[in-house]
């Protein structure tokens, strides 16, 4: 596997980071995950905009212009074998003597990008749907920043895995839905798709946007608003989205069936729309 690290392309074993890197010491950095279809980075402009939003959120100057990012990401895609990949892009504040406040002068940011094969959900999982648990969203109030400090998300996802589930659905203030530990969540009720608003309490998902665009273009009713915990538990269907999972049905919640316990009518509409979009738009 060839990676990009601080200005050069190299085998992953040669990419070495300082133990004083603030990403290592403080989790002081941000990241992106970008799917690549037929060697084309999907919604690159939107991913780079979200990266800029995250960098602004931690007051870190973007180490590259949009055209530099585009050039180096495309070069990395070409240097790796799979036609479909997912890029993991990571920027930290760089290495400096340990002190919580920003170092003066500012160190050179650390930039790392790797590519892995993109593996989308298996036919079996699409047919059965996945099991989820609900957990308390105990994260901070800037979940719109795609921060590398993911300890809460790690612990919440681990709780799901230990319960034999694929994902944890996060409930804030014992009151409303935010998102999944590493995904966005939609509720379906009476034929309508309900989406939590893109505020400071969730990551503005790129796949989330695609799903709402597909709904709008295909006459599927949807509403963007706060979704209550009660609505999650009384949903006809629950859907999960992310760049790597695309769109999946959640068929079990906290050990009980969601709706009739099978992927429902909304999933049956949206999944093929997403696959068509993938063939006709993402691969172009
Ligand atoms: N995670 N919410 C959170 C907390 C996420 O970590 C992710 C994605 C999403 C979905 O965003 P998108 O549709 O842009 O992938 C929502 C990535 C895949 C990850 O951390 O691996």
Please outline what is shown here.
The protein is an alpha+beta fold and 284 residues long. The protein is 30% helix and 29% strand.
Notes on the structure:
- The protein is an alpha+beta fold and 284 residues long.
- The protein has two domains: 116 residues, Aminotransferase class 4, branched-chain amino acid transferase, N-terminal domain (D-amino Acid Aminotransferase, Chain A, domain 1); 160 residues, D-amino Acid Aminotransferase, Chain A, domain 2 (Alpha-Beta Barrel).
- 30% of the residues lie in helices and 29% in strands.
- Strands 7, 8, 9, 10, 11, 12, 13, 14 and 15 form a nine-stranded mixed beta sheet that branches. Strands 2-1-6-5-3-4 form a six-stranded antiparallel beta sheet.
- Strand 13 and strand 14 form a beta hairpin.
- The longest helix has 18 residues.
- It is globular.
- N-(5'-phosphopyridoxyl)-D-alanine binds next to helix 6 and strand 13.
Instruction: Work out the count of structural domains.
Output: 2
Spell out the CATH superfamily of the largest domain: D-amino Acid Aminotransferase, subunit A, domain 2
CATH architecture of the largest domain: Alpha-Beta Barrel
Morphology: globular
Q: Quick one: how many beta strands?
A: 15
Q: What share of the residues does DSSP label as strand, in percent?
A: 25-35%
Give the ordered list of helices and strands.
EEHEEHHEEHEHEEEEHEHEEEH
Q: Which CATH C-level class of the largest domain is it?
A: Alpha Beta
The molecules bound to the chains, other than polymers, are: N-(5'-phosphopyridoxyl)-D-alanine
Mean pLDDT over all positions: 98
Tell me the Rg in angstroms.
19 Å
Main sheet specs: 9 strands, mixed
User: What distance separates the N and C termini?
Assistant: 25 Å
How helical, in percent, are the residues? 25-40%
- Which structural category fits the helices and strands? alpha+beta
What fold name stands as the CATH topology of the largest domain? Answer: D-amino Acid Aminotransferase, Chain A, domain 2
pLDDT under 50 segments (min length 5)? none
Q: Count helical runs.
A: 8
């Amino acid at each position: 596997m060839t990676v990009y690290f601080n200005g050069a392309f190299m085998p992953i074993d040669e990419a070495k980071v300082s133990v004083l890197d603030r990403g290592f010491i403080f989790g002081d950095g941000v990241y992106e995950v970008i799917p690549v279809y037929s060697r084309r980075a999907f919604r690159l402009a939107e991913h780079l905009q979200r990266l800029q939003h995250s960098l602004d959120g931690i007051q870190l100057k973007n180490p590259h212009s949009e055209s530099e990012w585009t050039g180096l990401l495309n070069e990395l895609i070409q240097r790796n074998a799979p036609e479909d990949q997912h890029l993991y892009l990571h920027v930290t504040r760089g290495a400096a003597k340990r002190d919580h406040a920003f170092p003066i002068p500012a160190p050179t940011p650390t930039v790392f990008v790797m590519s892995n094969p993109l593996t989308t959900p298996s036919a079996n999982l699409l047919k059965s749907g996945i099991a989820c648990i609900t957990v308390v969203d105990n994260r901070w109030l800037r979940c719109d920043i795609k921060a590398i400090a993911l300890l809460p998300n790690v612990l919440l996802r681990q709780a799901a895995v230990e319960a034999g589930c694929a994902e944890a659905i996060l409930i804030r203030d014992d009151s409303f839905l935010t998102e999944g530990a590493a995904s966005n969540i939609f509720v379906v009720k009476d034929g309508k798709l309900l989406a939590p608003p893109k505020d400071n309490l969730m990551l503005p998902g790129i796949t989330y946007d695609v799903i709402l665009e597909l709904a709008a273009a295909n006459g599927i009713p949807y509403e963007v608003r706060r979704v209550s915990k009660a609505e999650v538990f009384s949903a006809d269907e629950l859907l999960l989205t992310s760049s790597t999972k695309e769109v999946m049905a959640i068929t079990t919640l906290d050990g009980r069936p969601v709706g009739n316990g099978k992927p429902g009518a909304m999933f049956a509409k949206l999944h093929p729309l997403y696959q068509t979009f993938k063939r006709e738009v993402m691969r172009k």
